[in-house]
Amino acid sequence: MDKLASLLHTTPATAWMVAKLVIVFGGVFSLAAVWTWVERRGAAMIQDRIGPNRAALFGKIKIIGLAQPLADGIKFFFKEDLVPHDANKGLFWLAPFLALVPALMGFAVIPFGRSFVSGGQEYHLALLDPGNGMGLLYPLAIGGMAVYGVLVAAWSSNNKWAILGGMRSSATMVSYEIGMSLAVVAIFMTAGGYDPSEVIKAQGHLPWAWNIVRQPLGFIVFFACMFAETNRLPFDFAEGESEIVAGFNTEYGSMKFSLLALSEYCHMMTASALMATLYFGGWQVPFVQDPSVMLSVASFLVKMLFFAWVYVWIRWTLPRFRYDQLMHLGWKAMLPMSMVNLVFHAWRMSQGH
Amino acid sequence: MGVVVKKVELNWLDRTYVWPVMKGMGITIRHFFRQIFTPSAKRFTIQYPDMKKEMPAGYRGLHELKRFEDGAIKCVACFMCQEACPARCISIEAEEFSDLTFTQGFEEKRPAKFTIDMLRCIYCGMCEEACPKDAIWLRKDYEVAAYDRLSMQFGKWDLMNTYTEADGKERISQDPTPSVPRRTIAM
Amino acid sequence: MFITFALITLLGALGMLLQKNVVVAGLCMVAAFFGVAGLFVLLANPVAAALQIIVYTGAIMVLVLFVIMMLNSHQEEEAQASHPVQRWLSLALLAVLALGGVKLVMGSAGLKALAEKGSTMPQAMTLEKVGTALFADHLLGFEVAGLVLLAAMIGAVALTKRNL
Q1: Which ipTM was obtained for this model?
Q2: Is A137 close to C57, i.e. CB distance below 8 A?
Q3: What is the pTM of this model?
């Protein structure tokens, strides 16, 4: 790292920051792109089909269809870019970026590996170093911003289905954010800090000390709320193709549509990383006291990708809720459950556990 | 007639919603793994250009005009198929020839031209039913396509050679015996 | 950094005031909130920034936009009559207030101390500190706010739900 920095005439800290930026954003973005393929292939396998397996590099190398995202990208790039006649043009252009940027930004605080010391300097494997004062409030805040992408896309395309989808999804997001925040607050309380590194340290390396065991109720609430936040299937009220055509992205095509779709997958990645961090010990490797850096990164990746797979898995298992069922679940089940979780842990802490 | 909808009483475990979801996920993951470990030849999907569906016996696909061992056409140009064809896609022109081996020296008829318009054909198999000599039959090939209309007019030799590769037979493009110019009876 | 965030805030606020389209105005307000959050971070108070985004942009503005879309009022009514006197009066009042504010800040003891001693890097605000401040120093205010909010909530439920 030092050598590379001196080669580029920068300080190691700057070079490290740039490297992290590239790794995190590039990694999340490409994982999201790959996950579009995983989603289609997984769905096919679950339904006893085969899925996209024919896209080949240079027409020769098939690698089980992994070139599909690439082919999709090229196709989207060269498609005609339509803007509906009465759409609000500026906002119509802005919406995909409003959707994509928060989805990518949310990942910034999550440590994807343990910190290490090299050349007398400590390197942290997270974009924002621990102790930045934002901690896990940051992904929550950024997650709250994500609704604007959907909302603006819906409103600006001047389409009644789009507006219905946007309104449904914004109402969903606002109502599920409360339950999610309360579930996270319980974690802050038991961990004694709200920095992700503190949360991870508090969980330790033993699987039965992780928050999933300590707060199963909180996990269920957080898990369900994350589905609502990312607009994934049991709660995907922004789209709902059987009811409102394609929902908020009805009028979108070509690259703008692909950005909207990618932002959903980026959001999914961030959400699964959050779940791994909050409830499954982040980069901790089970039963290993001091894992090496690579091992910890691998452990984090495995956890994160598992949850990303659970997203796909659940999507092809459960049907969509009805809207009133969703609101019922959000306000009358999720919120009280996370309240109970919070109060229970507060009580336990007051008892000196 | 009314339909009686049975109300299902859910027990407390099912009403938590978590357990049924996990059951459903178990089912889907079972399908996932079963599919992933099935070799691709045994999956339900037939990946068409690479794999082809083996058509069952009795499938009516592309026609073949049958031949004798020496390559002579079995068809006697009786026009039965042309008459039977509901789509009127068969057109035959007859000619005469003398065949010593199979027809004991008689002079016989055979088609000089036998054209089937594959764009018109509806693969009903009526020609096969009508043929008194079992000279035409519809077999399993279902990939009949071309870039222009003219090449969808299958002639006599096209039709005789449709399944040569599948049967390992020789391609032929000539009758074993020459045709005889039509004789007029000398008075 | 300060200039950037200040510009975002000011342009957002101006856009909100001048924009004819209600939804665009709402989005400008979101931008202004975002700029304010950035200013909070520069003031070494990331907690306030995060809460600003969570509460204001994440919840309140979404609801406001939701209501705007629900009402779907694309056309603005024309103002019935212009009020030149009021307009100038308000401008003058605003100017006086702004001048007073600037004077207050310039004459404050803190600024004098800052000029004499030079600035020290302030300790970053954390959630723990916010919690201590709320429950130790401002307990009464916190409880009163809680009570007011509870009353508002009960009022809202009573207003919307006719038959309890």
Answers
A1: 0.75
A2: no
A3: 0.79
